[in-house]
Amino acid sequence: MNPSTASSPSLLAADAGAAVRRLSRCVGEGELDSPAEMYRVLGALRLLADDLTHLLPALQGRLEEGVLSGRVTGHGAGDAVEATWDSVGDVGRALTHAGTVALLMTKELEYSQAALRDLATP
């Protein structure tokens, strides 16, 4: 396998999704057995959600750069340039909404972790 392919963005995203699914199985199977471990899991998930708030705008920026450089072009009938920018705008709105949700998730995980703090302290 090509080294650059081994860490391609799509593979990294797939790995992150697989890790979250493994975590879900662990929790569902009862492997999360202490408040201290739950506290650490919530902290790691909070960081993950925070990372998403930074990643999503970067994805939008790369898409816009691709359109401006000509690497990303629209296909189909009519005004392909206008359709391309309409699509980029749609993606941008959706990513902005997802970023807002990720920010809210970050805050809620922070609140959950803070509420758990007393139970997690030995």
Number of domains: 2
Helix content: over 70%
What is the strand tally? 0
Beta content comes to under 5%
Oligomer: single chain
| Radius of gyration of CA atoms, rounded to a whole number | 19 Å
Q: What is the N-to-C order of secondary-structure elements (H for helix, E for strand)? A: HHHH
Largest sheet: none
Give the helix tally.
4
Rough outline: elongated
Structural class: mainly alpha
Which runs of at least 5 residues are low in confidence (pLDDT < 50)?
none
Mean pLDDT: 90
Termini separation (Å)? 47 Å
Word description of this protein:
This protein has 122 residues and is mainly α. The chain folds into two domains: 1-33; 34-120. The chain has helices at 3-6, 9-28, 35-69, 80-120. α3 (35-69) packs antiparallel against α4. The longest helix has 41 residues, at 80-120. The protein is elongated, with a radius of gyration of 19 Å. It starts with a helix and ends with a helix.
Describe the structure using short key phrases.
mainly alpha; 122 residues
Write the layout of secondary structure elements.
Blueprint (H helix, E strand, L loop, with lengths): L2 H4 L2 H20 L6 H35 L10 H41 L2
